[in-house]
Fold this sequence. Notes:
Shape: globular
Mean pLDDT: 92
Distance between the termini: 73 Å
Number of helices: 8
Number of strands: 27
Largest sheet: 12 strands, antiparallel
Low-confidence stretches: 1-31
Structural class: alpha+beta
Strand content: 25-35%
Amino acid sequence: MTSISRRGVLAATAAGGLALAATAAKADTNQTMPTPMRPGAGGTDPGPGNAELTRQNPDLYAPPATDHGTLPNLRFSFSDAHMRLESGGWTRQVTVRELGVSKNIAGVNMRLNAGAVRELHWHKAAEWAYMLYGSARITAIDAQGRNFADDVGVGDLWYFPAGIPHSIQGLGSDGCEFLLVFDDGEFDEDNTFLITDWFKHTPAEVLGKNFGAPATLFGHTPDPSERYIFPAPMPGSLASDKIPGATPVPQSFSHRMLAQEPIKTKSGTVRITDSSNFPVSTTIAAALVEIEPGGMRELHWHPNADEWQYYIEGKARMGVFAAAGQARTFDFQAGDVGYVPFAMGHYVENIGDTTVRFLEMFKSSYYADVSLDQWMALTPPELVNAHLGLDPQVMNALRKQKVPVVPA
């Protein structure tokens, strides 16, 4: 056998081996892939697919029989968002560009290493935040020159109205991570007003005139690309950052959400924060919901705004009813964003074996929801029964008081 023919045999053998390996891998994938079937509908899916992603979203792959119509996508994961890496941490965002239905609210997930600073800046949109990990120092002033500084930890909030300049710095041994929520779906974290950027694009003579100093002392500002999120010395105590002679803001820009007494039910808790207990937060209302395994955020809707959700932990299923016979079901886990358009009925169910914890957020000064159970209980029973023909046991179980989280 010539060397050429030997090479041909070896190549053919190698190709055959690769083909067999690919077939085996595909077979293994297909064995573990969920099947898009339910009794009387669907079929197998022998083609290519992402088994891991499908397993995370079984109610998209094999929707319940109650799903119907063409509701838009109401879910996006921060894990699928672009990560911007900086010298002092990272940031990523979910806006209307990632989740097209979210016209009113955008979200940013940000990490600051120990000592790292999100540089002095301001936005056209108001900023609401929830601390997910670690601790941070936040500073700001208002339009009357009154100042603010506070240290915040897990479960604490802050709110800076549109146009209010502020900063955030990671504290402790490992800095912090937090969720930012903005009252504009078109918000872009890369399009904020940065102090270094303004200095960089202002003539040195103008800066000198403004600050009453020689123009030669300016023009050496670090490039904005070197700041944004950057390392800095760890600050001293909060007391040491107090500005002598400064007047504090009349309404605090921070709030201890976890310190609130929750609404408790057999299977969960709800903490509501809006302008009634966090007065400065006039454009974002929120609820922190905890659901134990098997429990469910009851069937309800919100009569004042769209709902933007952020899932902190656990595994959940949400069903959304959009009227006109339209309904869709979505699955969520930590780091996912959910969305419910204005007035659409929905529920959130814990489908895992650990607590589900998530935030509900609204572009509104106040929180409001309408309970399907309570509505039915406070409507003449004959009228309800004329519509639904329910068993007396169901009618007798209707609750006149809201139970935001119902048991299994």
